[in-house]
C-alpha cells in the first residue's frame, strides 16, 4: 500500500523515465523507498532551513562591507566565480535528477568558496565574530546539504551520472582571496558567493520539493 | 684684438649690468657702446674678419672652441689655428671648431688664419679660462621604475663624478611631467658633492595622483660647480625623458588599490575606463568627477575620515560596470604606554603595555609590535589582527641565564608609521611571584605551628619576603613578615609562634622578594585549630548567702576562650577553714554555681577550672561578710548601656572592690552579674548588654578587707530613665461647693521607669461629654495646672471652685524621662443652697410688690383710666371709622359706609330672653343708623340687630338652625370691616359655627376702618396690636370661638366678619389681642391683666 502510493507520487512529479531503483517490479527497492522518502523530506527540510540562513548570512555580510554595499542603488557586477556558476534560467526546465545533480555540484563547490570568503573577512573584519561564524556555518551546512543531495541522488540511482565536477575548491578559493584583484573585488566576490549560496540552496529546496510527497511544500 | 676682448668681455658686463641696477647715464653709455660695436662688426665683416670664437668644456679637460667663418669662406676652406700656449702649436683644419686641451690659467693668444686664396687677415683672440663655459653633459637616467601601489617613482642615475675634480658640487634638477598636457607636476633640485668617482644616485617621489591614472615623464639635468674652474658654469641640457605608464589588466580599473592613508589627508582616486564613467563616490557620498584623459576620471577627497574595519569603499560606476577600490584611513601607532616588564619566576619576562590611541586599522594593517632586547639582540614579535580595546598587550621574553639587566625597546609599526618605547630593568628587582600553593599547617605545640607552601620559580639567587596573615575569630588580623632564602621550584616552610592554645586560626600567605616589587596574590586560606593548654587564669568568683542565711551560693564566670585554653570540662569547688579543707564534687560545665551549707565560721571558697590538659589556678573568696551600719541608698543614672559608679578610696580595703548588681524587681538574693576592680580604684563603669532603659537596678559596692567583704554602698539606678507608663490612680475624697479634695496612690516601680520627680495636676470646667482636655502643656488660660514636686504628697485640695459645676481633673506623674500618661476624672461641685433660695425669693418679692403697687394705682386712678381709655361715650370725631372717604364707597353698594344722615335711630329688638339677660340697656343708644328691612326679613326672630347704617348692607344668618339650637339672645353687628378684609375661604367659613361676637348685649365698639388696602391694614393692625393699649377687635376667629351664635355676613365681597367698633368702650372683650391665637380660647377661664379692665356685667 505504501509502495503503491509512493510510486504514484514519483511518477507524477518526475518527468524522467523511472530510474531502475524505482522499478516497482524490483523487489530489492521496496525496502529503500520509505527510507528514500524520509531522506528526501529531511534533505528538503534542511534546504529550506538553509535558505533562511542564507538570507541572514547575506544581510550580515552586506552589513560589514561598508557603504555603498547594502544601499538601494548599489548593484555590483555579478562577477563570475571560478568553479561555480549561477543557476541557469533553463534550470527549471531540466529533469529533476539533472537539476539535483547541478545542485549537488554547486553545493560541493560552495564550502571551499565560503571558507575562502571567511578567511578574507577574518582579515577585513576580525571584530565581526557573528559574520565569521555564519560563514563558517554556511560552509559546513552547504557541505552537509550537498552530501544529503548526493545521498538522494544515489538512492535515485543518478549519482554516477553526475555532471562534470566543479573545479577544485582550492582553485575556486584562490579566486576569492586573490588580493591582486583588490579588496573591493574580494568584497564583491564574497557578496557574489554568498548570493550564489542562497540561490543554490533555494534552488535545491525547490528541486527537492518536487520530490516530496504532496509536491512543493 | 681689442674688439675680441671687448666681445668676450662685453656679455659678461652686460650680464652684470642686468644683474645690477643701472643708472640712466650708464644705460645711455651702454647704448652708445652697443651701437659702436655693431658698426665695428659690420666693418670687420666687410673686411673678412673672423667672428664669435666661443669655447666650452664639459669635463674641464678639453676645451671646445668654435667660431663663425668669415663671410665668403666656403666649406672646406683650410685655416690655420695657432695657439700661443706652452708649445705654440698650430693646427690646420677645415672646420670652424677645434678641441684643445685645457690651457693653463692666463691669457693665450689664438690666431686663426684662412689659407689658400682667401683674402683675409689673420684673426687673433685672447683666450682665457675665464672665457670658457663649463657645460656638463646631460645626466643619463639609469632606471626609472614605479611602485604603483604606493604611487612612487624611483629614479636612478649616474653622476659621472669621475669626470670632475673631487669635491665639486653638483646640483641636480629633476622634473616630472604628466600626460596628456605634459604639465609639470614636480620640479625639484638637490645638491650632491662629487667624489671623483661615478656614483649612482636615487630619487623617490610619490605622486598625489595614482601612477596608473596617467603616464608620467621624468627628466634630469645638472650643474657642476668646480671650485678650481674660473670659467663660466652652466646647466647641462635635460636628459632624455623617461616615462612610466601602467599596463591595464582586466580586473583593476580604480586606483589606488587598498591604500592606507593618514586620517585627515587628501587623496585622489582615478578610474581608468574605456567607457564613460557616470559617477564616483566614496562610501555613500558622490564626488564631482575630474576628467583626466580619454574616459578616465578622478575624484579628489579632502580630509578623509577614519575608516571602518573593512575600509572605505570608493566606487566608480560606468555605463556597463562598477569599479571600486578600498582605502583605509587610520593613524600611525601611538607610543606604547605604561611599558612594564616583570617576571613571575625569573624564567621569562612579561612585558606589558597599553597601545594608546587606536589606529583604526585592523587585520593586516593592524599594528605589529616588536620587543627587542638590545644586550642579547633577541626580539619577539607581537602580531594580532584584532584590536584589543581597554586591554593591555603583553609579550613573553625568555630570560637568558645570568642576564639580569635588560634593555627593552618596544616598537609598534603599521603602514602609517611606527612608535617605540624603551625600558631598562634589572629583572631581579621586578619579581612578582606567582600565587603560593599547597599551603599546609602543622602543630608544634599549643602556641606554635609550621606553615609550608609551594612557590614555583627560579629564586635560587635571591631572597624572598613572605607575609603571613593570621586571622583569629573576633579579633583583628595579624600580619607577620618572614624572609626566606629562595630556592629553585621548591616548597618553603616557616614556624609561626605566639599563638593562642585551642584557637581557630586562619592562615594565608603571599610572597615578594627582598627588593620589593609586588606581592603575589594571596594563597588560599587554611584554617587550623591549635591544641589545648591548661587554663591560664582562675575563674572570676562571687558568693551570696541564701535568703535564710544558711547556705552560701558560689558563683563563677566561665573563663573566656583566651584564658580557658581549651574546652573547660568541669570545675572543682572546695571550702577550707582553719581546721579543714573540704572538697566538693566536681561540677560539670556549663553549670557555674554551687551551693554550700556552711556554719557561721569563716571559710575560704576555692574554685578551679579544668580542661583536658589540666587545672587552672584556684580562685579564692571568703565567706565572711562584714556588717556596715552606716549604709545609705543612693541614686544614679547612667548613659547608654553603662553607668558610672564612684567611691572614695578606703585604705582599709586591701584586696579589691566588687560591684554586683541586679534587677530591683527580682527577689533576694538577686545577682545579675558582678565586677571586680582593683583596690586602688575609685570608680568603675558598669556595662552590660542586659541593661535596659527604664528598669531599676540595684548596685552594691563591696570592699574586700581581710578576706572578708563589706557592703560599702547601695545604689539604685537606671541606665536610662523613661517616662512612667501608667498614670497615678487618684480618687476624689471630698467635694464641696467650692473645693475638691483629691487623693492618689503611688506608681509601682516597674511602671515608674525612672525616679519620680513629681505630679502635674490639671483641672478645668468641663462636662463629661466635652472633648478631652487637650494641649495640657500648651497653657490654655482656662486650664489650671498644679505642679506637685513633693513626691511624698498624696493629696491635693483644689479650692475656689464654683458650686454645682462640673470639673475635669487630670493627674500625671513625671520622671526625668518625661511625662507619664494622664488619668482624668469629672467631678461636679455641690450646690450652694442659700444662694438658690435668694435667687428665687428676690424675683418673687419684686413681682408681688409691683403687682400690689399697680393694683393700687389702677384702683385709685380707675376713673382717669376709664375716661382716658374707655370713655362711656366715644367721641365720634375720634372715630376713624366714620372718616371713610367718599370715593371708597362710591361705585358699590356693598361699600357704603355709615352715613350719619339721614339715618334714623336704631331700634333694639329683643328676640329672646334668657336667664342671663344681656346688658342691652347699656348699648341702647340712639344711633342715626337707618333700618335695614332686608335684614329683618331674613331672620326677624333670632336677631337683635344693632345697625348703624345698614340699608345698603345685607346681614343674614349663615346658619339659622344653629341659631335656633343656640337659643340665646344675640347681638348682630353689621360687618363693616369685611368689605375691606379678605378672609378665609367660604367653604371653610361654612364649616365654622356661627359665632357670637359678643355674648352680651350692649354697645359694640365700632371698628376703625383704615383706608388702606386690606393686606396693609392687616399688617398695620399687627403693629397696632403691639403698640396701642386700645385695640380694635379684629381677630375674627377669636370672636367666633366665643359664641356659636355670632352673626355672619353673607356678602360675597365680604368674606370676613368683623365686629365691634374701636371707638367703643363697652366691649366685653380684652382690647389688647393675645400674642397667639390660643389665648383667647382660654381667656374665659385664665387669669389675665385684662380682667382688671373688664367691667363687670352688673356694673
From TrEMBL, chain B:
Subunit text: Heterodimer composed of LIFR and IL6ST. The heterodimer formed by LIFR and IL6ST interacts with the complex formed by CNTF and CNTFR.
SUPFAM superfamilies, per the entry: Fibronectin type III (SSF49265)
Lineage top rank: taxon: Eukaryota
Residue stretches making up the Fibronectin type-III domain: 335-434, 435-533, 538-629, 724-833
Protein role: Signal-transducing molecule. May have a common pathway with IL6ST. The soluble form inhibits the biological activity of LIF by blocking its binding to receptors on target cells.
Organism listed in the record: Nannospalax galili
A GO CC annotation given for this chain: receptor complex
Subcellular location field: Cell membrane
Signal peptide extent: 1-44
Coiled-coil ranges (or none): none
Membrane topology field: Single-pass type I membrane protein
Xref: PANTHER family: CYTOKINE RECEPTOR (PTHR23036), LEUKEMIA INHIBITORY FACTOR RECEPTOR (PTHR23036:SF105)
Transmembrane annotation, as ranges: 834-859
Gene name per UniProt: Lifr
Region (Disordered) location: 1041-1060, 1067-1099
Pfam family, one: fn3
Residue ranges, compositional bias (Polar residues): 1088-1099
The name this protein goes by in its record: Leukemia inhibitory factor receptor
Amino acid at each position: 500500500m505504501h509502495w503503491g502510493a509512493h510510486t504514484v507520487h514519483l511518477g507524477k512529479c518526475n518527468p524522467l523515465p523511472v530510474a531502475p531503483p524505482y522499478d516497482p517490479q524490483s523487489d530489492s527497492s521496496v525496502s529503500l523507498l520509505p527510507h528514500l522518502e524520509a531522506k528526501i523530506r529531511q534533505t528538503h527540510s534542511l534546504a529550506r532551513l538553509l535558505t533562511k540562513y542564507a538570507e541572514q548570512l547575506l544581510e550580515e555580510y552586506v552589513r560589514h562591507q561598508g557603504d555603498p554595499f547594502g544601499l538601494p542603488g548599489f548593484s555590483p557586477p555579478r562577477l563570475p566565480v571560478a568553479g561555480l556558476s549561477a543557476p541557469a534560467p533553463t534550470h527549471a526546465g531540466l529533469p529533476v535528477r539533472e537539476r539535483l545533480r547541478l545542485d549537488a555540484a554547486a553545493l560541493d563547490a560552495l564550502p571551499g568558496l565560503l571558507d575562502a570568503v571567511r578567511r578574507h573577512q577574518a582579515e577585513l573584519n576580525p571584530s565581526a565574530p557573528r559574520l565569521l561564524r555564519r560563514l563558517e556555518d554556511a560552509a559546513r551546512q552547504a557541505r552537509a546539504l550537498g552530501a544529503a543531495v548526493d545521498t538522494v541522488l544515489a538512492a535515485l540511482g543518478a549519482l554516477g551520472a553526475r555532471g562534470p565536477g566543479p573545479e577544485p575548491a582550492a582553485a575556486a578559493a584562490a579566486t576569492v582571496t586573490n588580493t591582486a584583484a583588490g579588496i573591493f573585488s574580494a568584497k564583491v566576490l564574497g557578496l557574489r558567493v554568498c548570493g550564489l549560496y542562497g540561490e543554490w540552496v533555494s534552488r535545491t529546496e525547490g528541486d527537492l520539493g518536487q520530490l516530496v510527497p504532496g509536491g512543493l511544500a | 684684438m681689442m674688439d675680441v676682448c671687448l666681445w668676450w668681455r662685453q656679455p659678461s658686463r652686460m650680464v652684470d649690468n642686468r644683474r645690477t641696477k643701472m643708472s640712466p647715464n650708464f644705460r645711455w653709455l651702454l647704448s652708445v657702446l652697443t651701437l659702436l660695436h655693431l658698426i665695428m662688426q659690420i666693418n670687420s665683416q666687410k673686411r673678412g674678419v673672423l667672428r664669435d670664437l666661443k669655447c666650452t668644456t664639459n669635463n674641464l679637460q678639453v676645451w671646445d672652441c668654435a667660431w663663425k667663418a668669415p663671410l665668403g669662406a666656403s666649406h672646406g676652406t683650410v685655416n690655420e689655428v695657432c695657439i700661443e700656449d706652452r708649445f705654440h702649436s698650430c693646427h690646420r683644419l677645415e672646420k670652424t671648431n677645434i678641441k684643445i686641451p685645457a690651457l693653463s690659467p692666463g691669457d693665450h693668444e689664438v690666431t686663426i688664419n684662412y689659407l689658400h686664396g682667401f683674402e683675409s687677415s689673420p684673426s687673433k683672440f685672447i683666450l682665457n679660462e675665464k672665457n670658457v663655459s663649463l657645460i656638463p653633459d646631460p645626466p643619463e637616467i639609469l632606471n626609472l621604475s614605479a611602485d604603483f601601489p604606493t604611487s612612487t617613482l624611483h629614479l636612478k642615475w649616474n653622476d659621472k663624478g669621475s669626470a670632475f675634480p673631487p669635491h665639486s658640487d653638483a646640483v641636480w634638477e629633476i622634473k616630472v611631467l604628466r600626460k596628456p598636457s605634459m604639465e609639470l607636476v614636480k620640479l625639484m633640485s638637490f645638491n650632491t658633492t662629487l667624489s671623483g668617482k661615478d656614483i649612482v644616485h636615487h630619487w623617490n617621489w610619490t605622486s598625489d595622483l595614482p601612477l596608473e591614472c596617467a603616464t608620467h615623464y621624468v627628466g634630469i639635468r645638472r650643474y657642476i660647480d668646480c671650485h678650481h674652474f674660473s670659467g663660466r658654469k652652466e646647466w647641462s641640457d635635460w636628459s632624455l625623458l623617461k616615462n612610466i605608464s601602467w599596463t591595464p589588466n582586466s580586473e583593476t580599473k580604480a586606483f589606488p588599490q587598498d591604500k592606507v592613508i593618514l586620517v585627515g589627508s587628501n587623496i585622489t582616486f582615478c578610474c581608468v575606463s574605456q567607457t564613460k564613467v557616470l559617477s564616483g563616490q566614496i562610501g555613500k557620498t558622490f564626488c564631482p568627477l575630474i576628467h583626466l584623459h580619454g574616459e578616465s576620471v578622478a575624484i579628489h577627497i579632502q580630509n578623509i575620515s577614519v575608516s571602518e574595519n573593512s575600509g572605505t569603499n570608493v566606487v566608480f560606476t560606468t555605463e556597463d560596470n562598477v569599479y571600486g577600490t578600498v582605502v583605509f584611513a587610520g593613524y600611525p601607532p601611538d607610543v606604547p604606554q605604561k611599558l612594564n616588564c616583570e617576571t613571575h619566576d625569573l624564567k621569562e619576562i612579561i612585558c606589558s603595555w597599553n597601545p594608546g590611541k587606536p589606529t583604526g586599522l585592523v587585520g593586516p594593517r593592524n599594528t605589529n609590535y616588536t620587543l627587542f632586547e638590545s644586550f642579547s639582540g633577541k626580539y619577539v614579535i607581537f602580531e594580532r589582527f584584532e584590536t584589543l580595546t581597554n586591554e593591555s598587550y603583553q609579550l613573553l621574553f625568555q630570560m637568558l641565564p645570568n642576564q639580569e639587566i635588560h634593555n627593552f625597546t618596544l616598537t609598534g609599526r603599521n603602514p602609517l608609521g611606527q612608535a617605540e618605547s624603551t625600558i631598562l630593568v634589572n629583572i631581579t628587582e621586578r619579581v612578582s611571584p606567582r600565587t603560593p600553593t599547597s599551603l599546609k599547617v602543622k602543630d608544634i605545640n599549643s602556641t606554635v605551628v609550621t606553615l609550608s607552601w609551594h612557590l614555583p620559580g627560579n629564586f635560587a639567587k635571591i631572597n624572598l619576603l613572605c607575609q603571613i596573615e593570621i586571622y583569629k575569630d573576633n579579633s583583628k588580623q595579624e600580619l607577620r613578615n618572614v624572609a626566606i632564602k629562595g630556592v629553585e621550584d621548591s616548597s618553603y616552610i616557616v614556624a609561626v609562634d605566639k599563638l593562642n592554645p585551642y584557637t581557630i586560626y586562619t592562615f594565608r600567605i603571599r610572597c615578594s622578594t627582598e627588593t620589593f616589587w609586588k606581592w603575589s596574590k594571596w594563597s588560599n586560606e587554611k584554617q587550623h585549630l591549635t591544641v589545648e593548654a591548661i587554663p591560664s587564669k582562675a575563674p572570676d568568683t562571687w558568693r551570696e548567702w541564701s535568703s535564710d542565711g544558711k547556705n552560701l551560693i558560689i558563683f563563677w564566670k566561665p573563663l573566656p576562650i583566651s584564658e580557658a585554653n581549651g574546652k573547660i570540662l568541669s570545675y572543682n569547688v572546695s571550702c577550707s577553714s582553719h581546721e579543714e579543707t573540704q572538697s566538693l564534687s566536681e561540677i560539670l560545665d556549663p553549670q557555674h554555681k554551687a551551693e554550700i551549707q556552711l556554719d557561721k565560721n569563716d571559710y575560704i571558697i576555692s574554685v578551679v577550672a579544668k580542661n583536658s590538659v589540666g587545672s587552672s589556678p584556684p580562685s579564692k573568696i571568703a565567706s565572711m561578710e562584714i556588717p556596715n551600719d552606716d549604709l545609705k541608698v543612693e541614686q544614679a543614672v547612667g548613659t547608654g548601656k553603662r553607668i558610672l559608679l564612684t567611691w572614695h578610696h578606703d585604705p582599709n580595703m586591701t584586696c579589691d572592690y566588687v560591684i554586683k548588681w541586679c534587677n530591683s524587681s527580682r527577689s533576694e538574693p538577686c545577682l545579675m552579674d558582678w565586677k571586680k576592680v582593683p583596690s586602688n580604684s575609685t570608680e568603675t563603669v558598669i556595662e552590660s548588654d542586659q541593661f535596659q532603659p527604664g528598669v531599676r537596678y540595684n548596685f552594691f559596692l563591696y570592699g574586700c578587707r581581710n578576706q572578708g567583704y563589706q557592703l560599702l554602698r547601695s545604689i539604685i539606678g537606671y541606665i536610662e530613665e523613661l517616662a512612667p507608663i501608667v498614670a497615678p490612680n487618684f480618687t476624689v475624697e471630698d467635694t464641696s461647693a467650692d473645693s475638691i479634695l483629691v487623693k492618689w496612690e503611688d506608681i509601682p516601680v516597674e511602671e515608674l521607669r525612672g525616679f519620680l520627680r513629681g505630679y502635674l495636676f490639671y483641672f478645668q470646667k468641663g462636662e463629661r461629654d466635652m472633648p478631652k482636655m487637650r494641649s495640657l502643656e500648651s497653657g490654655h488660660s482656662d486650664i489650671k495646672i498644679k505642679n506637685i514636686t513633693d513626691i511624698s504628697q498624696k493629696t491635693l485640695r483644689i479650692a475656689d471652685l464654683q458650686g454645682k459645676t462640673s470639673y475635669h481633673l487630670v493627674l500625671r506623674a513625671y520622671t526625668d524621662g518625661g511625662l507619664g500618661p494622664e488619668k482624668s476624672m469629672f467631678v461636679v461641685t455641690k450646690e450652694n443652697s442659700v444662694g438658690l433660695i435668694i435667687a428665687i425669693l428676690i424675683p418673687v418679692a419684686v413681682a408681688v410688690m409691683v403687682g400690689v403697687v399697680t393694683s393700687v394705682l389702677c384702683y385709685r386712678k380707675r376713673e382717669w383710666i376709664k375716661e382716658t381709655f374707655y370713655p362711656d361715650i366715644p367721641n365720634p370725631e375720634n372715630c376713624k371709622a366714620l372718616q371713610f372717604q367718599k370715593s371708597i364707597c362710591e361705585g358699590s353698594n356693598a361699600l357704603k359706609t355709615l352715613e350719619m344722615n339721614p339715618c334714623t335711630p336704631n331700634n333694639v329688638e329683643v328676640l329672646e330672653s334668657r336667664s342671663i339677660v344681656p346688658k342691652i340697656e347699656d348699648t341702647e343708644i340712639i344711633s342715626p343708623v337707618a333700618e335695614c328691612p332686608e335684614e329683618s326679613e331674613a331672620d326677624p326672630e333670632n336677631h337683635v340687630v344693632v345697625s348703624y347704617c345698614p340699608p345698603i348692607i345685607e346681614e343674614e344668618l349663615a346658619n339659622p338652625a344653629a341659631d335656633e339650637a343656640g337659643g340665646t339672645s344675640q347681638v348682630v353687628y353689621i360687618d363693616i370691616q369685611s368689605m375691606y378684609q379678605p378672609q378665609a375661604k367660604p367653604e371653610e367659613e361654612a364649616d365654622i359655627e356661627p359665632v357670637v361676637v359678643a355674648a352680651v348685649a350692649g354697645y359694640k365698639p365700632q371698628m376703625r376702618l383704615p383706608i388702606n388696602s386690606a393686606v396693609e391694614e392687616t399688617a398695620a393692625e399687627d403693629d397696632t396690636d403691639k403698640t396701642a393699649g386700645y385695640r380694635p377687635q379684629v381677630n375674627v376667629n377669636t370672636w367666633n370661638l366665643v359664641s356659636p351664635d355670632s352673626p355672619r355676613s353673607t356678602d360675597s365681597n365680604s368674606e370676613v366678619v368683623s365686629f365691634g367698633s374701636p371707638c367703643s368702650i363697652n366691649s366685653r372683650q380684652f382690647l389688647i389681642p393675645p400674642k397667639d391665637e390660643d389665648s383667647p380660647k382660654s381667656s374665659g377661664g385664665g387669669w389675665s391683666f385684662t380682667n382688671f379692665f373688664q367691667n363687670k356685667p352688673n356694673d
